[in-house]
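Quick one:
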Amino acid sequence: MKDANYPSIKEQLTERKGLLHDAVKVSPDNQNLNKLLSDVDAALNEMAEGTYGICTVCNDPIETESLLADPLMTVCLSHLSDQQQQALEDDLEYAGKIQRAMLPEKEIKTDEWEFAHHYHPAGIVSGDFCDLIPANDGSHIFILGDVSGKGVSASIMMSNLHALIHSLQSFNLPINEILQKANRLFCESTLSTNYATIVVGKVVPDGTVEICVAGHNPPLIVKDGKVTPIGATGIPVGLFCSAEYDVERFKLNKNDFLFLYTDGLSEASVNETEYGTDRIIEYLAEVNGLSAKEIITDVLLKQQSFLGNTKLEDDITVAAIRKI
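Output:
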């Protein structure tokens, strides 16, 4: 079976085969290494024959997400043994715990700023992420993003990108350089089909905000009842290693705020009708003096009222940053 991801998987498997060969030379009697080498050879042969990605039990295609997470997968999720199912559930549970541990506190307040967020994965793990990182000069770096795909593979990529940005900010780089370096490193460490939309910004005590929007849903500036979307200042991370990002700068005064969200908020739908950005903007234009937490709570309640009993199918992460 052909899949757009297979050339990238083949490239990675070929590279891993070379590394396994080197390891086997050092430890020729290692049964685990020899089995892995045999499994990689089998997968590459199946690619050459056009049979890669087919479940050996039911002959249906294996989920692409499963193959991205484990290129040596030979059965679809429904045909895993009880032991394999339990191992997968355990891994998912640990992955979910790791993700939640990476999140900032739900509410953070300084003398100048109030930050709040809501994170709700559609499953155990998520491709969404957000963070707020204090800097030595009294400023704060904020991040909110959404990695393509769902499930384990998206959560692994999310953790990778989150760690990259978190590490790079410690070098006191301008935010566009943080994003540019994170993009290059992300490109070089993931499959070519993987990408992420992301917002990286910086707030300083006097109310100045700097922000880069890498193909993400437009952040919304709310000042005196006027809502202004911030358009993209660059393409999503992971598409091209040489991508560059511009910076938008503006100033927030007391009670002004910035609202960030992933598409799980705006693209949730009922009977093929999306909740949409316009509904979010309409509500935010009426906000007056609410805390960051209250703003988020009300936005989510309005979305839930729109959805009724319809189940959410995508991760939702929202954040509000308010000048106080």
